[in-house]
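Notebook entry, cofactor series.
This is the third protein in the set we're modelling with a bound small molecule. For this one the ligand is zinc ion. I'm keeping the input format identical across the series so the outputs can be compared line by line later. Sequence and SMILES below, as received.
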Amino acid sequence: MRRFVSQNWAQAANPDLYLHDEGYYMIKFQTIEDLNAVYYSGPYSINNRPIILKPWTPEFDFNTEFPTEIPLWVKFPNLPMNCWSSNSLSRIASVIGTPIFADECTSKQTRISYARMLVEVNVTRELPEAITVLDPNGRQFTQEVIFDWKPEFCQLCQVVGHKCPPPPKAGTQNHAPQERRREPRKVTME
Ligand SMILES: [Zn+2]
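Returned structure with ligand:
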């Protein structure tokens, strides 16, 4: 981890690293600018295993279970240009979770094939693949939602990190469709 930090987070000056418990690190940055530079340039992974970054808060409790509100990077491919204001982006992202930040290319609109945002998401809930957006002109469209990475959540064990196969249903011969497709969540622009 120490090597990863020095190799990948060179933009931050000598952050302090503390190993707390299995899988947890506390990283103390010298400045808030260093923290933001690292935080907003993610996501990161070590050996293809994602690193989940979460800003520390006084309420943070290592003893509670794995956090279920996790910041994830979300892409909105081919988002219409009239929905790119930070206000519109926040509204769209609010359908998925709590918007934190749009990446630099998105806020400066230097890359317009997709908008990308960091959104804190409750991973115990099913994450949408699309949302319905009503744009400022009253036009309704379906916006695709792509997560750079999302953690597995086991509905049986109620934990993040794995997924148990669903138990075989007793007494059912023909497979009724289990996962009914839900209506996309909806957002309205003003
Ligand atoms: Zn499980």
